[in-house]
Design goal:
By secondary structure, this protein is α/β, with parallel strands linked by helices. It folds into 3 domains: 6-129, Fumarate Reductase Iron-sulfur Protein, Chain B, domain 2 (Orthogonal Bundle); 145-239 and 412-492, FAD/NAD(P)-binding domain (3-Layer(bba) Sandwich), CATH 3.50.50; 243-409, FAD/NAD(P)-binding domain, CATH 3.50.50. Helix content is 32%, strand content 16%. It contains 19 helices and 16 strands. It has helices at residues 6-9, 20-23, 36-44, 54-57, 64-72, 76-84, 90-96, 100-103, 116-129, 153-164, 181-184, 193-205, 222-228, 257-268, 298-309, 345-348, 416-422, 451-454, 459-478; strands spanning 145-149, 168-173, 209-212, 231-234, 240-241, 254-256, 290-294, 314-319, 352-355, 357-364, 370-382, 388-392, 398-401, 404-407, 411-413, 446-448. Strands 3-2-1-4-16 form a 5-stranded parallel beta sheet, with helices on both faces. The protein has a 5-stranded parallel beta sheet with strand order 6-14-7-8-9. Helix 5 (64-72) runs antiparallel to helix 6 and helix 5 crosses helix 9. The longest helix has 20 residues, at 459-478. It is globular and about 65 Å long.
Length: 493
Amino acid sequence: MGQADGFLKFDRKLPGKETVEDRIKNYEEFYKPFSEKETNDQAARCMNCGVPFCHNGCPLGNVIPEFNDAVYKKEWKEAYDILSTTNNFPEFTGRICPAPCEGSCVLGINKPPVAIEHIEKSIIEEAFAQGWVKPDLTIERTGKKIAIVGSGPAGLATADQLNKAGHAVTVFERAQAPGGLLRFGIPDFKLDKAVVERRIGVMIEDGIAFKCGVDVGVDISADQLKADYDAVILAGGATTPRDVPIPGRDLNGVHFAMDFLAQNSARVQELKIEDHKGKETNQLWATDKNVVVIGGGDTGSDCVGTSNRHSASSVTQFEINLKPGAVRNENNPWPEYPFLLRSSTSHEEGCERDWSILTKEFIGDDKGNVKGIKITDLEWTVEENGRKSFKEIEGTEREIPCDLALLAIGFVGPDEPLIEKFGVKTDPRSNAKANLKDFKTSVEGVFAAGDIRRGQSLVVWAISEGRECAAAVDEYLMGSTKLERKDNSMLSV
């Protein structure tokens, strides 16, 4: 695979970025062009490792060495054909995936891993440029009708696969436009919404129907969907944010991060200003404010980048957990996903970061607006069994200024009313109860896939679940399926 000595000859290299000064002036993607030769050289680094752990590192089971080899040989159409057999939306994963495949790259044991994510993005962008991505108008229809609730990555992947199987697919979305997290949760500077629109356009041409502004269970009943369709798939995601029940939580200026991000995405797209659940809301701005982001994950990082583009006075990000190390520890060996200190492009743009911080109270002024946050440092203890615990460090309690507090501490589960309306049983974490084999819920003809089933996770996992669920639904309706599954893919041969 690749060039025999490519991993020795070429160093890992990625596209350059626009300067911080330029890119915070707008919401555009800011990576500079990368020449074909430079991408070919990166693909050349893929070594003939014998056992490609990247296959298993990728939740989709992407056949990575094979498409790397095709790119190295400049056989771009072959690379696209390989990639599209396992990934419906490489233009999304090639931009926003944390690339667990790279963490499992054999070359990554003692050298920087192959730039798999960049190569994946390059393949799909070449495919669109050459007109290889187009609707299939030759699909033979089965006469079966399927309703999908939710148009995020899981819903889109399920829809795309089931449409390929010949079923008539209708996707219901409570927000004003399709895409879910891809459209409203991820800022444009990471995922330009023209990229989302491009894919949705192909899906519509392919025969998939989208009904937006429809809140299933409110605008149309669960019983009606079950009566009108041969199968219903719940793909509504994990949309209930984790809260912090501390004094001052009800002050003006304390908001969930996803509401802040969703309405900013709507603003950039010139859509109605709505929160992350599709409800109209007052506008949130970080302009000239001291912004504190509570939570150290990707959502928190997105809040940092968005606040910088609002020209916030200051941006501070806190994380309750220990600061990750720069290298793997002994409890996180290769080829597991590496839990390392990561700095995003948003952090490069300006942000104070701190770890092992506990938020104790929001402090308000006499008008009910937040003006500060009381915090304290934590001391963490790791026991022999790996269990972690913390205690407050005496004498470290202090107040910092804050005009806008954004809670980015994850999601506790799906929208409970939706699950309740369908009468679906839940697991101990309040997710829709369904297994990975058939994705069936406790209600006949109702399936669940993505974060609504597995809990908060990655976009790439949502796409994977959508694909697997589609195969299960097709088999349920037709008795068998020709849709690829991980257990009958080329990887299992």
